[in-house]
Amino acid sequence: MADKAGGRRGRRAQGQGAEARPDEPILTRERIAATAVDMLDAKGLDGLTMRGLAEALGSGVMSLYWHVENKEAVFDLALDTVLEYRGPTALQDWRGDIVHVLEDWRATMLRHPWSALLLPRRALGPNILVRLERLSACLSAGGVADVDVNAAIWSLWNYVMGATVTRASFGPSDADREASQERLAELGTLYPSIGRSGLLLDDDWDGTFRRGLDFLLDGIAPKR
Amino acid sequence: MADKAGGRRGRRAQGQGAEARPDEPILTRERIAATAVDMLDAKGLDGLTMRGLAEALGSGVMSLYWHVENKEAVFDLALDTVLEYRGPTALQDWRGDIVHVLEDWRATMLRHPWSALLLPRRALGPNILVRLERLSACLSAGGVADVDVNAAIWSLWNYVMGATVTRASFGPSDADREASQERLAELGTLYPSIGRSGLLLDDDWDGTFRRGLDFLLDGIAPKR
DNA sequence: ACCTGAACACCGTTCAAGT
DNA sequence: ACCTGAACACCGTTCAAGT
Predict the structure, then answer these.
(1) Which pTM value belongs to this model?
(2) What distance lies between CA B17 and its chain's CA centroid?
């Protein structure tokens, strides 16, 4: 596709979205992060290679290693770039606030499906801590007892995590959907209960997410 | 380590655990699956290579491809092998039953941490459907309305999924733990709420799992 | 039907240099 | 301080054969 041997080195990357201002150095952690995100969005988790990344940035492969320890570090960088939280800061209705935080969380991750696969295996970056902090504050404001707060936070975390990871993986690919469609006849007899309820045919992901979240919040809400 | 060039071909694999009975063919889907599981247990997700798998089985690399489409298929095989559910079939206390199903689910996955990373990106194998079916039956038996059953199942699924994936990844490696320990001083000032509650210091994973699950089940339980 | 080695088109990263 | 190409030690998989 692109010219291979030609002297495109030192040139600016084009079309990959992360354009540098003319006076900026070609290689910075920020530009590396931004380009990695673009590449992950475009080609998925396995689509990111150091070689490809370098080419998109118009540099030699090994130049990256001056700015970045290794490929893992690139993943970390990309993940934290994507997870930045800018949300309203005013607290009002604690339950509504929590729903907002979690729906926003899920939405950002689904905008970059690779992030869902990535997050669980990385350490907690600052941008995730911000979100957890927010959650914690909401729960306390809602009157959840101190002893319950941690369990509540983790259960909410688990819930978004699970929902997002699931949705991100066999959500969009309809090959799976068709496969389950076909299997549905035998399903009804082999697994009567989930066959009857049409569990695998439900494609209202957003609605189901919201309804399950309500279950969880019902359980978390302080009893009176 | 092992002799490289020596004629070990056609010999049985030793020490890898998946010993063949002498009259059995060297390569079967079952032996491939079992050996893959052993290898994944021992060396993690990235530790499984077709070349290594073949060597452990005492065959040439390409011989595997007669029994198996590609590496993805090996993952599928290994995952489904591990997820087999043998649990009591008698229904009694619906809530206790659900807790049992989920704790067993989580426990089996944590016994093979790679499975937690793998499951979300694969289609639902038969052994997972068995567990979902079980869940569905429990919920109905518990009086959960038909309209709520699907949302309830998915929320439970999300919960185990998230909890297991999280625990499997930054659970056992204590490098992360130490890192967060160090960051705790600044944490208190940057993130007062989660600093105060010691969210990141909580290491009672089992207890937290159980308590969060109770929140969820409280919300799911039919109101009266 | 089942197994094989050689070869291809990739990887991430080390190293010894260049400016 | 920043960038580089060549080389190393791997990958998964195609292909044309062997029995």
Answers:
(1) 0.86
(2) 20
